[in-house]
Specification:
About 45% of the residues lie in helices and about 15% in strands. The protein has 13 helices and 11 strands. The strands form 3 sheets. Strands 1-11-8-7-6-5-4 form a 7-stranded parallel beta sheet. The longest helix has 28 residues. It is globular, with a radius of gyration of 22 Å. The protein starts with a helix and ends with a helix. The N terminus is likely disordered.
Length: about 375
Amino acid sequence: MNNSTGCHQFKSISRLLVVLVALVFFGMTYLTSPATAATNNDKTSSDKSSALVSVVPSSKTTSIFNPAKVYLGITPTGWSNSDDTTIDLDPPIRFEQIMSEMALSGFKGSQTSPKFPQDIDVLKRELKLRKLTISEPWVGTEFTLGKNDESLAEFNKQLQFMKQIGGSKSIVVAELGGAVHQKPVAPLPNKPKFTDKQWEDLAAGLNKLGSIAKEQGMQISYHPHIGTGVEDFADIDRLMSTTNPKYVNLLLDTGHLYYGGVDPLEVTKKYSDRIKHVHLKNIRQPVLDESIKNGWDFLYSIKQGIFTVPGDTKEGAIDFEPILNELAKAKYEGWLIVEAEQDPNKTNPLENAILARSYLHDVTGL
């Protein structure tokens, strides 16, 4: 290669670098997040300089929700799974990457995760760095097994954690007495069936937790979950009728409902006044059909790709637009959390997060 050719190539590379730097600067300047950051009191920040860089472009679209009272989050389960640690990359995805990609996608909150720092000060620092907060903790109770003290202790632990971390007043609760979702059995035919006494114990326990939460300025939302004793529409009806609406709210999880043969839109219409927390999870119908036909267990179904994100119109079976419109009509306030447990070896977590965030922006204006 002569000097003239080398000089020409050097100039070409230099021009390319200049273009790349310009593109990066343009992205940092103009692609800001349309979502609204939540402070410790679930109120929006008026400091425009705090807007995060986001790959989802901003828009003047009018939101169907009150943007000061509805927040968008995403769970870490699209990157790695806390129930089955083999659902991860090798080497495992670091928590710093998970948090950063959440923020980059334009989300403002996340569930807790075993991967996240366990030291509260370190966790708060890492979240603050990315303008994120914790949207909710998970509390698994066992009131139907008579483990009232243990259930109360775990609840109080998570309540104090949320008061320390700030950013949300939601606590997600699910009864795990006899649950099979982490066992190697088909979840639908093997779900626990509570006796009348167990239903009474569950209602009493949840009312107590809800009362404690309310006194502390918090609230609980019950999560009907595949492989547990509260799974289908009849279970939800019974739970709602036996618990005090002042203390016990409902979490709408579109994916778990659909998985269990329940229409999430019908649940939304019937219990819109009690829905205080939402998980937006899509279903791949062919995988669900195979799961039921072959008796796959819950975690194996996840590995096979049973879940996907809202906005996946190619493979997803759930139509989210009427559900979100129904929530908006009921003046829903709280978190809309994208939750789609997936295997990062088979699908790209960041790509899915961007897809979901863009879709929610298009549908809701948030």
